Amino acid sequence: MNLTHIEHLGIAVKSIEAALPYYEKVLGLKCYNIEEVADQKVKTAFLKIGQTKIELLEPTSEESTIAKFIANRGEGIHHIAFATDNVVDALADAAGNGIRLIDAAPRKGAEGLNIAFLHPKSTGGVLTELCEDPNKI
Ligand code: CO
User: Fold this and answer.
1) Gap between the Cα atoms of 130 and 122, Å rounded
2) How many whole angstroms from 96 Cα to the centroid of ligand 1?
3) Entry pTM
4) Predicted confidence (pLDDT) per residue in 82-109, tens digit
5) Can you spell out the DSSP letters for the chain?
6) 90 and which of 1, 34, 75, 119 could share a cystine (Cβ 3.0–4.6 Å)?
7) High-pLDDT (> 90) share of the chain, %
8) Ligand 1 centroid vs 9 CA: distance in angstroms?
9) Ligand 1 centre and the CA of 25: distance in Å?
């Protein structure tokens, strides 16, 4: 597959409001967007460093996978997202290499990206997201 860079790191937080001062005041990054992704029952906040983003993920429901993640493992790094110019091809490559897919086909994620996840059981425990920016193709 053709990956170009780390698009973002997803970090599970109980509260974006409580987490942001560390990223903004201590690290000096700037939050440029807060968005709710109803589909995934999360609120997301984005900060940028170089061409890579930090995506803070706050659960909006106990049913959210992020709520379950925090209940099981506490706050912290939740996933790594790689940018690709073709998420459909990347998924096919992964499946062809025996990687278990969470998403057989891409869906819409935050910021209008086409995204799909690979299962951490196939990736050494790292929940892995592939994303394609439809505005950059
Ligand atoms: Co993500």
Assistant:
1) 14
2) 23
3) 0.92
4) 999 999 999 999 999 999 999 999 998 8
5) --EEEEEEEEEE-S-HHHHHHIIIIIS---EEEEEEEGGGTEEEEEEEETTEEEEEEEESSTTSHHHHHHHHH-SEEEEEEEEES-HHHHHHHHHHTTPPBS-SS-EE-GGG-EEEEE-GGGTTT--EEEEE-GGG-
6) 1
7) 90
8) 7
9) 23
> How far away, in angstroms, is 76 Cα from ligand 1 center?
13
pLDDT tens per residue, range 22-60: 999 999 999 999 999 888 899 999 999 999 999 999 999
* Ligand 1 centroid – CA 98 distance (Å): 22
